[in-house]
Design a protein that fits this description.
The chain is mainly alpha-helical. About 70% of the residues lie in helices and about 0% in strands.
Length: about 350
């Protein structure tokens, strides 16, 4: 695996020394073919799991080295080789991922904007060379969505779905974009389709419930969550989502009831639930009870910003308080197909 490093002893160096010493030797062809295949192995190890619907356990450094190895492969084979465009496209994709591998909306912030934009530039060049590479199309969709270019993201996810019609992640992402744009009529059938295909996976129940509620279908919004409990799919998240539903419906006491059932069932989410109950206590004007709950949250997790944020907002009369419940539980299920971390 010493393909291009260290500089003083590697496979590329030995190949070139051999070719210079023995020009036209038939072994050069075999060596070049084997070396080209080896220079693609790191790229394959990163991308192939994604295309099989598995998690790709890689890093930005892996992507950087894969890009460098692909550049060496391009130089080895030359621009006249029939694989030149594909190899160049792969190299550009790896350069993009060396900047933003595994990025998601959960950890994206404005300081990453320049890297995201540069990553998009590399991927746009890659797509121009290899227009139907699903991994590039999918990542372009994610990156466009991160910077709020939803029309472009929508187009990429639709293209990705055309290339990989059974891909869970692409449907989920496309439906999320429709939901964010308020295009509920487009989001609803996608969420329902995901629930039919993957009934054991929780997020589509929550997002479908939100879409139905925002269309004024309050009862349907509540009822769509019921299978999580009655079919034993995810009792904890049923309780938690009912807490969110009751909050949205303005049913403060019911919301508190569901959050208490949630952490009684699953103690690991106690701090999240207590935080949200504290928020409800403020809404009720029970400030002493809220203070006690927030102190308990801080005892459980001293790094949590939420109890400080909510308490400060409430004491200063800030109307933003109404939006400061935590909107998802701390325990999540893994996505069954291609994950967003690609």
């Amino acid at each position: 695996r010493k393909l291009i490093w260290p500089l003083d002893t590697n496979a590329i160096r030995d190949y070139r020394k051999f070719s210079d010493a023995f020009p036209g030797n038939y072994l050069s062809t075999t060596m070049r073919r084997n070396l080209a295949a080896a220079l693609n192995q790191r790229f394959d190890s990163i991308v192939n799991p994604m295309l099989r619907g598995e998690t790709s356990y890689s890093t930005k450094n892996d992507c950087y080295y894969a890009g460098r190895e692909l550049d060496s492969c391009v130089a080895l084979l030359g621009e006249g080789h029939y694989m030149y465009r594909n190899l160049k496209a792969r190299s550009l994709f790896m350069k993009a991922m060396s900047l933003t591998w595994a990025i998601s909306e959960d950890d994206y912030n404005v300081w990453m904007l320049n890297n995201v934009r540069k990553s998009i530039e590399y991927m746009e060049e890659s797509e121009a060379l290899e227009p139907n590479a699903a991994y590039t199309i999918g990542q372009l969709g994610i990156h466009y969505a991160l910077i709020g270019e939803y029309a472009k993201a929508n187009a990429k996810f639709e293209k990705y779905l055309a290339l990989r019609p059974s891909d869970f992640w692409a449907k989920q992402s496309l439906a999320d974009i429709y939901q964010n744009l308020g295009q509920y009529a487009k989001a609803e059938p996608l969420y329902r389709d995901l629930i039919r295909q993957y009934p054991q996976y929780t997020p589509p129940y929550r997002t479908l419930s939100e879409v139905l509620y925002d269309q004024g279908k309050k009862n349907a919004s509540r009822d769509v969550l019921q299978p999580l409990l009655t079919e034993g799919l995810d009792t904890m998240n049923y309780y938690f989502m009912m807490g969110l539903w009751a909050t949205k419906a303005g049913m403060t006491d019911s919301s508190i009831y569901w959050y208490r059932k949630c952490y009684a069932f699953e103690p690991s989410v106690e701090s999240v639930c207590l935080n949200n109950i504290g928020h409800k206590m403020i809404v009720k004007g029970a400030y002493d009870s809220a203070r006690v709950l927030f102190k308990r949250v801080i005892e459980i997790d001293s790094t949590s910003p939420f109890p400080y944020l909510i308490w400060d907002a409430s004491m200063n009369g800030n109307a933003i308080i109404r939006a400061r419940s935590i909107g998802s539980s701390s325990r999540s299920r893994s996505i069954p197909l291609t994950p967003r971390v690609i």
